């Protein structure tokens, strides 16, 4: 099963090409250009490198949010257009879940965080179980301190939000772990592919017409009005 995977939830534009849930090629574009200017060309380039045609795709996947309002709209619109035109299944994956699954073993809890601006983060909390990572609270938008108050001492914080508020989080959770480098806090298309493959196998297919981004809060423009 050939799948195209796209992530535009943050400033990084991620593109992955996977076979049976295993990523064969991934690109993470951080040029500083808007996703509008790099996404479609990036898809064409990565597919050309593997010699794939869009007609060969069996499914398409995209991070559904939370994250950048503009970025999510661009990525989801592009992927919905492909899914509709090709008549292929669309798989939506939580951007926070992707980050959680990038955390290393060794910590009983994982708290993925994405910078939400306005001194807030998008976050959730996962616990490690015999069945793997299990989400134990709903995805939320709020202050990093709110997340720290819910997390156990031995929690691993990951994502650009965790990197941004690392000092505050360390003060509240001294035994916590962090992915210190910026590149370790970026969502990988390979993980999007793995999670999307699982959802595809479980029959968790999105309705292309009704699929929408998950924002968690109103946009700045809506708040202003």
3D structure, described in words:
This protein has two domains: 2-94 and 187-224, 2-Layer Sandwich (Nucleotidyltransferase, domain 5), CATH 3.30.420.40; 103-185, ATPase, nucleotide binding domain (Nucleotidyltransferase, domain 5), CATH 3.30.420. Helix 1 crosses helix 2 (69-86). It is an alpha/beta fold and 225 residues long. It has helices spanning 35-50, 69-86, 95-100, 144-150, 160-164, 166-172, 189-201, 220-224, and strands at residues 2-7, 13-19, 22-29, 59-65, 90-94, 109-117, 120-129, 132-142, 155-158, 177-178. The chain contains eight helices and ten strands. The strands form two sheets. It has a five-stranded mixed β-sheet, with helices on both faces. It has a five-stranded mixed β-sheet with strand order 8-7-6-9-10. A hairpin with a 5-residue loop joins strand 1 and strand 2.
Record the SSE blueprint:
Blueprint: E1 2-7, E2 13-19, E3 22-29, H1 35-50, E4 59-65, H2 69-86, E5 90-94, H3 95-100, E6 109-117, E7 120-129, E8 132-142, H4 144-150, E9 155-158, H5 160-164, H6 166-172, E10 177-178, H7 189-201, H8 220-224
Q: Sheet with the most strands?
A: 5 strands, mixed
Q: N-to-C terminal Cα separation, in Å? A: 46 Å
Give the domain tally. Answer: 2
Mean pLDDT: 92
Strand order of the largest sheet: 3-2-1-4-5
Kindly summarize this structure in a few lines.
The protein has helices at residues 35-50, 69-86, 95-100, 144-150, 160-164, 166-172, 189-201, 220-224; strands spanning 2-7, 13-19, 22-29, 59-65, 90-94, 109-117, 120-129, 132-142, 155-158, 177-178. It is α/β, with parallel strands linked by helices.
């Amino acid at each position: 099963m050939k799948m195209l995977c796209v992530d535009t939830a943050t400033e990084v534009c991620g593109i992955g090409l996977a076979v049976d849930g295993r990523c064969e090629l991934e690109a993470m574009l951080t040029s500083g250009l808007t996703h509008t200017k790099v996404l479609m060309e990036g898809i064409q380039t990565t597919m050309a490198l593997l010699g794939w045609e869009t007609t060969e795709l069996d499914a398409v996947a995209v991070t559904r949010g939370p994250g950048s309002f503009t970025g999510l709209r661009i990525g989801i619109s592009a992927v919905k257009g492909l899914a509709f035109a090709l008549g292929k299944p669309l798989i939506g994956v939580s951007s926070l879940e992707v980050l959680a699954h990038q955390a290393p073993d060794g910590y009983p809890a994982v708290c993925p965080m994405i910078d939400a601006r306005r001194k807030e983060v998008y976050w959730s909390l996962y616990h490690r179980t015999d069945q793997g990572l299990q989400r134990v609270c709903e995805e939320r938008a709020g202050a990093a301190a709110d997340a720290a108050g819910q997390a156990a001492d031995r929690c691993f914080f990951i994502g650009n939000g965790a990197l941004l508020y690392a000092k505050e989080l360390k003060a509240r959770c001294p035994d916590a772990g962090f992915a210190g480098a910026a590149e370790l806090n970026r969502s990988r298309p390979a993980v999007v592919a793995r999670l999307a493959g699982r959802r595809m196998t479980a029959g968790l297919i999105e309705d292309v017409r009704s699929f929408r981004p998950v924002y968690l809060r109103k946009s700045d423009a809506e708040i202003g009005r």
